[in-house]
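We treat protein structure as text, and this decision shapes the records that our systems exchange. The remainder of this section carries one protein's record, kept here as part of the documentation:
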Amino acid sequence: MDTIDGMRTVVAVVETGSFTAAAERQGISKSLASKYINQVEAQLGLSLFHRTTRKLSVNQAGQQYYRQALEVLAQFDKLYNQLHSSRQHASGPLKVTASQSFAEELLSPLIPEFLARYPDIEIDMVVTNQKLDLVEQGIDIAFRASELNDSSLNYRPIMPLQSSLYASPALAKQVKTASSIEQLPCLVDTNLHPTCRWPLSADATEHQGSATIAIQPVFKSNSPRLIRQLTLAGLGVSYQPDMIVANYVASVQLVKIETDVAPLQVPLNALFRGGSYQPERVKVFLDFVTAKLCVKG
């Protein structure tokens, strides 16, 4: 057994949660994957996994080996790519997760051009507003629009995402001051504002406990698209990402409400597994998305 093959197999088993899925990822048989794991454990003199007839789970030693193996493999891949830079080719599976709004509105228009440029990359896009565990789900890149409270995560800043208050032209005419918003029907995206209060400034978020205004929600949903459609229909005022509604503003279907309420801004980051080195398929995807979004923004 090659040591690197053994490491990659352990990593694959940890990330996929099964020998079968790990073998498929590695392009080897299940029996060979099992053999590699047994040989690694024999060399170490300890077990890396808890095995039962129904479930396979990684133990503490396995977690420690996994974290160190990621660093070793990252350095190995970096060295390999540097020595073969003239033949470097981005390929392989790429698993990405993003929120519904970001994936459907901002990422999806970019995918055709990206795949035309990199046809050997296979994208698996997991669209969810939940924050998935990158290791458990085997995710290469997670786009998250929020402050990062866990400094142990590896991430790359992409851009700030700004949202403002928008309404239909008729409803917008009723807004004279920030306080008048309290009297208007409001549409709440519960992904951003789980409580019925809106921040008064970019630094005044409900998570920080700063000044907010109480609003009158007439409709709440975790679907950003549904909130936007009802805003277009004139049902109420809502926070909308400036980049996503730019075309609606240009066609005067939506109007940005200009009051003392400052735009709500959060950082968009791309989280990734392993060390600071990124596999070529991860790097080219992040470079492509960053360039396109920064131009659009």
